[in-house]
Fold this protein.
Amino acid sequence: MNIIFLGPPGSGKGTIASKITKELKIPHISTGDLFRAAIKEENDLGLKIKSIIEAGQLVPDEVTIEVVKRRLDDEDTKEGYILDGFPRTPAQAEALSKFSNIDKVIDLNLEDSEIIKRLSGRRVCRSCGNSFHIDFVPPKQADVCDDCGGELYTRKDDQIDSIKTRLEVYYKQTEPLKKHYAQLGLLCPVDSTPAPNLVLANVIEILK
Ligand code: AMP
C-alpha cells in the first residue's frame, strides 16, 4: 500500500508514520529526514538546502521531486511505502502521480496553538533522530536521549519565527492538496489532538 501523510508541521506525521512503518513493514520516507541527513553529511544537496530549511521555507520543487523519485526507485518500496512530508505543493503532487500510484492519504489535523506548543517544545536526538518533548514526552535526563544517550537539541526550524513561516507556507502551498486528494476519493481526515496511541489506533483502523 502506498500512503501519504499530509498535515501541518507538528501534527504528528513523523511520530505516527514511524509506528505504522513497523506495523505494515513498508518503509517510512520522510523528505525532512532525507534533507536533514544531507545537511549532516554536508554533501552538495545539504549545502544547497541548509539555509532554506532553517528559515522554514520549502526546498525547490525540482530538487525535492528528484530526491523522492530516486528514493521510490529503491527495491524496498515495491510492497508499498509511507511518504511523510511529500508532496507539499501542487507541482509535487502532479509529479508524484506520474511516477507512482497512491492508495490513501492520511490527513492529520491540529489547531495552530497546539502545533506551536508541540514544535517549540520538541527536542531531537543528534545521534539517532528520536524525538522528545519537554512537557509531553520528557527524556529521563534533561537534554539526553533515553535510547542512545545522544545529545538532544532544538531544530533551528522549531524556533518560533521559523514555525510561523512553516505554518504560513503550509496554508498557502500544502493545504490546497487536501481538495485535490479529496476529489480523487483518497483523503482520510484524522484528528491529531488526542494522545499519539489513540491517533495511531484511528490510522490503523483506516488502513485496514
Ligand atoms: P519536516 O521534517 O517534514 O517538517 O521538513 C523539514 C523541512 O524540510 C521543511 O520545513 C522544508 O524546508 C523541507 N521539506 C521537507 N519536505 C519538503 C517538501 N516536500 N518540499 C519542500 N521542502 C520540504
Q: What stands out?
A: Strands lie at 2-6, 28-30, 81-84, 104-109, 122-125, 131-133, 152-153, 187-191. The chain has nine helices and eight strands. The chain has a mean pLDDT of 96.
